[in-house]
Specification:
131 residues; two-stranded antiparallel ribbon; alpha+beta
Length: 131
């Protein structure tokens, strides 16, 4: 799936937990997103590696490298991220989403916090007894 979309799924992490009611082990985090996985560009990979260059990166490593290039190592006040870096980061995440799902990303507007709270409540009502 990743290759057909123009990416290499380099690695990923899966997080599991145990359902307290059934004892069943369940997947508890997002899967195959740029936050849980590393994606590299498939079409440019061999050329870049043959030149000793880094592959095209389509995941959160893009931001880590940007911060590192400024000498920021996660301590103290982080540098302000310029708009063009934010837009490039967003473009990379969107390209992974749209490439893997074959769907155009539609960004919902409005009360994000309210929508999250409503969705959590709906999930709790439909999936678990609230205790």
């Amino acid at each position: 799936v990743a290759r057909r979309a123009g990416f290499i799924l380099v690695d990923t992490k899966y997080e599991f937990g145990r359902d307290p009611e059934t004892g069943e082990i369940v997947l508890i985090d997002e899967v195959h997103t740029p936050d849980s996985s590393r994606f590299w560009g498939y079409n440019t990979y061999e050329e870049k590696m043959s030149k000793g260059e880094s592959p095209d990166i389509y995941d959160k490593e893009f931001m880590r490298l940007w911060f590192t290039s400024l000498g920021y190592k996660g301590e103290g006040e982080p540098p302000k991220i310029p708009e063009e870096v934010i837009l490039e980061f967003r473009k990379r995440y969107v390209s992974v989403y749209e490439g893997l799902t074959h769907k155009k990303l539609v960004i919902a507007e409005g009360d994000v916090n309210g929508r999250i709270a409503t969705n959590i409540q709906l999930w709790l009502v439909n999936n678990h007894t609230i205790k």
